[in-house]
Amino acid sequence: MQDNISLRNIIEEDLIKIIKGLSSEELLGAYRSLSGLKVESNSNLRIREKSSSLEKDIIKEYSIHLRSQNKADSTIKDYLNISVKFTSYIRKNRISLESLAMIDIDRYLSLARSRNISNNTYAKIINCIRSFLRFLYGREYVKKDFSSLIKIPSKVASIKEYLSDMDIENIKNYLSRRKEKYKNENLRDRIIFSLGIDCGLRRQEFINLNWEDINFKEGSINIKNSKGRKNRVVYFNSNLRELLYLYRKLNGKYINALIRGAHGKRITKCSLQNIISAIFKESKTYRKNLTLHSLRHTYAERLRRKGVDLPTISKLLGHSRLDTTDIYLHVNKDDFKMAVL
Description:
About 60% of the residues lie in helices and about 5% in strands. The chain is mainly alpha-helical.
């Protein structure tokens, strides 16, 4: 602090000496230069503020556009997140939307690709950027439809793991004897596991599930406003019915979130995945590609093995296309043998 004060005093003394030595014309010239510098600085600040405000308005407009297209909330969130990063990049590099060129987009995508991300993550970024650029062109914020010039990279098909009958038995036995960290933890996790392998719920469907969505009389679950804003009904067996009855009785709460975290609040995506990952590891069932979504694959595979036809499986999974459902089915050599015997 003392050093800063001393430096300031030295600068002020030097400036006074310089000013005293200037003529009237030189003083006037120096004043005009300093005034111009201040005006330019304020002007640049106003331009940056205007640019930032315009960026926010466009993102807000794009958000409304995505909602009008009936996109799922999770999809909208991903698209907006990437669009904000892209607009922030072009603003930092002093590129206006009016002057945006393909080379600017290529540089941004090249930078994204250099961050050691997977091919599938990069493909997702490409799809989001293409959507945003189509929107900008449609609203005449950019002069050209750059989206048509961006090639969509091929996705790498990941291994879709599912649980065998032995895996399922191991996990159920583990959950029946695991030491609980808090009251009713094992019962809740048995319900989560059963909702996955017996009803095929998606991650967000677990989170959104409310007690009012459970129809005990019909043995059904009303899944509302899921992926693609679609509704569907799935059915549960007597074992899951008993677990749900017991859980409701012990909790004493029949409204709002069915699946809750340790503190009684609606469970989060992260907590849900952590619960399933821990169950896989602690029950000695863990394999590299086993995830929460593997429960849904297990549901589809169990339906196939029961002889349920593809269109019915597709409807129960909430798919719009049969080729999407086909990814969930795990036909192997033994199935081919059985088909001709």
